[in-house]
Write a structure and sequence with these properties.
The chain contains 13 helices and 13 strands. It is α/β, with parallel strands linked by helices. It has two domains: about 180 residues, 3-Layer(aba) Sandwich (Rossmann fold); about 160 residues, Rossmann fold, CATH 3.40.50. The radius of gyration is 21 Å and the shape is globular.
């Protein structure tokens, strides 16, 4: 009996870690998991470091900014697409998967398209409040068997007659983040800054400016800045005369420990980041990327704020106003305490288990 399942997705941690979480749950049910990603994504290092069975396609996304390098990459896209599609067909012929699950990212679509050719059931785990355009197209063509939603309001973008089954599962998070203890805050002291798996250049420059004007000796800072940004971020802290104890890291390997340490998080509005914050019960000040596709980061962040878990700040042209407002919130222990009261009223389910229970395999 063939028990192979393909899980395709990656490029960023927001697409990779839900794939890993779903795969880990399937392995508990004796399925053989083969991950498919991109040679250019974060998954290349992650799969190698963790000795995970995988295949990497020579595909990368369309570049949206203009430069000579971007133009050359975009010119190569049709050739890479064709070769990656053929590679996906070869992998299906070789392993004969009974199911293909896509978690997003530029490597995710090719195995799904190849699966359609072989009439293999294909399913999507959509992380964001607004589904990506590719997923919406596949749903309109009636090719999707199931769609698992990270945020329930994303169902508004699907016609239920076009998708066999929509499941409000929430976003799967890493197994090691499950089960963190609730935290009660009277005064917050530990501030964690995370810019996603690749860091955030905007946060690397903004946060030191904010903290440079704060007189709060008890405040401790941990800042994840992204690859190759450590020196410039450290210099920004020194330049802005941040006197508090601070640590700058390119990447945080042990996110469980980091969340456990933190009282408040400053971050972007990526779907997985927001979902992790909710499930580990950590309050946050979220500054969504303003030009994200369909403004999905803003909607993800508003979902968090509307439930009283934290506060959203818009990145607009008035940087001084943003600095002032964020600084004021960091000093406001009363509001942070109320955020934790709301977080601790909620109970959150295991999204990976919900997904597996609804696969019907």
């Amino acid at each position: 009996m063939n028990n192979s399942i393909f899980i395709s997705g990656g490029g960023t941690g927001g697409h990779l870690f839900p794939a890993i979480s779903i795969g880990n749950e399937l392995i508990k049910h004796n399925f053989s998991i083969i991950y498919i990603g991109s040679k250019y994504g974060i998954e290349k290092k992650y799969f190698k470091d963790n000795n995970i069975k995988h295949y990497l396609l020579n595909i990368r996304g369309i570049q949206r900014h203009i430069s000579i390098k971007s133009i050359l990459i975009n010119l190569l896209f049709p050739f890479r697409f064709t070769l990656a599609y053929l590679s996906s067909i070869f992998l299906i012929i070789k392993y004969k998967p009974k199911l293909i699950i896509g978690t997003g990212g530029y490597a995710s679509g090719l195995p799904l398209l190849a699966g359609i050719l072989f009439k293999i059931p294909i399913m999507i785990q959509e992380q964001n409040s607004i589904p990506g355009s590719a997923i919406r197209i596949l749903s309109k063509l009636k090719y999707l068997d199931k769609v698992f939603l990270g945020f329930g309001q994303a169902s508004n973008y699907f016609k239920k007659t076009k998708v066999n089954f929509l499941v409000d599962s929430g976003n799967p998070i890493r197994d090691e983040l499950l089960g963190l203890k609730q935290k009660n805050i009277d005064q917050f002291n530990n501030l964690l800054i995370i810019g996603g798996s690749q860091g955030s250049d905007f946060l690397n420059h903004l946060v030191p400016k904010v903290l440079g004007g704060i007189d709060k000796n008890s405040l401790k800072i941990r800042h994840q800045c992204g690859l190759k940004h450590r020196e410039i971020t450290q210099e920004a802290y020194k330049k802005n005369n941040v006197n508090n104890q601070f640590t700058v890291s390119e990447f945080i390997d042990d996110m469980r420990e980091a969340y456990e340490w933190s009282d408040v998080v400053i971050c972007r509005g990526g779907a997985l980041t927001v979902s992790e914050l909710i499930k580990v019960r950590r309050s946050a000040f979220i500054i969504p990327i303003p030009n994200s596709i369909d403004n999905h980061q803003i909607l993800n962040a508003k979902f968090f704020e509307e439930r009283g878990f934290g506060k959203v700040f818009e990145q607009d042209s008035d940087i001084n106003n943003l600095i002032s407002n964020l600084r004021e919130s960091i000093l406001d222990n009363t509001s942070v305490k109320s955020y934790y009261e709301q977080l601790n009223k909620n109970s959150f389910s295991n999204s990976s288990k919900i997904i597996i229970d609804n696969l019907n395999i």
